[in-house]
Automatic annotation (TrEMBL):
Belongs to the flavin monoamine oxidase family. It is an enzyme of class 1 (oxidoreductase). Its EC number is 1.4.3.4. PANTHER family: AMINE OXIDASE. It holds the Pfam family Amino_oxidase. It catalyses: a secondary aliphatic amine + O2 + H2O = a primary amine + an aldehyde + H2O2. It comes from Fusarium musae. Residues 8-151, 156-252 form the Amine oxidase domain. One of its GO terms (molecular function) is monoamine oxidase activity. InterPro entries: Amino_oxidase, FAD/NAD-bd_sf, Flavin_MAO. This is monoamine oxidase.
């Protein structure tokens, strides 16, 4: 159900909202830190509406999410860790499916449709199916060739500007001695072919109200099941599992 203020909130960035209600002081600093840590982006880049939705989705049916649930250890998103690492989920699922059904080192390049049949094209082979589930993030999904095509573009920030910003923070936290850096290692996840950014998609102003439903709405027989498509814990492994279950159920209901 749409909120009566959703368009108003979507026009604002988190930063512009903070300008009006928390212009100075430690409150703003804490909220900005939360945005950077949880969204891998700056408050100036994200619409207020998308941030509210992201926070609300840290709940469960009947329990709205909160900032505390998003950031806390006890009773929050950071409370538990996987024994053996989170990759154990994928490893165990792969064991149940069987190696003959899983193709590694075979990224999908193109998805063509011909009526009710879809052809998934990879470098070394083709696969036909009546339904397709795309589980990667929108920024990656946009690099697959579809009919119709999808595109994704992300601006680049000069590395030198990043060094200066990090050095400024280091000096503020650890004294001027921190400026004597011997070596830098800069990892740009937005330049990585199979990540293209942080762990969660970000929505600039005026994007969610126009294109938000496209994150989950199937296009023909192509269903979307990345963590962004989950109604709860979007951006987390929990959200990825939920989105996969929802997409699988929807397809089974259609077949």
């Amino acid at each position: 159900m749409a909120h009566p203020k959703e368009k108003e909130w979507d026009r604002l960035t988190v930063a512009s909202w903070l300008d009006g209600c928390a212009a100075d002081g430690s409150v703003r600093e804490i909220l900005e830190l939360i945005i950077r840590a949880c969204m891998s982006a700056e408050p100036e880049e994200i619409s207020l509406l998308s941030n509210l939705i992201y926070t609300a989705r840290t709940g469960s049916p009947g329990v709205p999410g909160t900032v505390d649930m998003l950031t806390n250890v006890k009773g929050g998103s950071q409370e538990e860790r996987f024994e053996g690492g989170p990759q154990s989920i994928a490893t165990r699922l792969a064991g149940r499916l069987g190696n003959d059904r899983i193709r590694l080192q075979s990224p999908v390049r193109q998805i063509n449709s011909n009526g009710n049949v879809y052809t998934v094209i990879r470098d070394s082979f083709r696969l036909q199916a009546r339904k397709v589930i795309v589980t990667i993030a929108p920024a990656l999904a946009g690099h697959i060739i579809y009919s119709p095509p999808l595109q994704a573009i992300r601006d680049q920030i000069p590395a030198e500007d990043i060094y200066k910003a990090i050095l400024k923070d280091f000096m503020r936290c650890f004294s001027p001695k921190a400026q004597n850096v011997q070596q830098w290692v800069l990892q740009r996840w937005d330049n990585e072919e199979y990540s293209r950014g942080g762990h969660h998609v970000i929505f600039p102003p005026n994007v969610w109200t126009q294109f938000g439903p496209a994150v989950t709405k199937p296009i023909g027989g192509i269903h979307w099941a990345g963590t962004e498509a989950s109604p709860y814990w979007s951006g987390f492994i929990e959200g990825a599992v939920r989105a996969g279950e929802i997409a699988a159920k929807n397809i089974l209901d259609e077949l």
